[in-house]
Amino acid sequence: MRKLSDQELDEISELAVKSAENFIYSKIPKKEVLDLDIKVELDYHEGLDVDINVDIQFDPLSKPDDGIADDAVDYAIAEIDSYIAKN
Asked: Pfam families in the record, alphabetically (predicted)?
């Protein structure tokens, strides 16, 4: 893997957050989400290690899919892989 610049690492972090958020809001209306916290940690030494944590608090009347946070993480990682492949 080629060396990534600090700017590229920032872009990857922002891409991960936006991708996860867009995925969630494509599945659930914003009004059903009371709180959304997306944390991205990048560790770049011999390769790029990405840790994404998605914490969602739903409206009590909402009936979300139980795996939506995990699906959002998977989607964000796929978007990061695509970004790296293009650059």
From this structure: DUF3194 (PF11419)
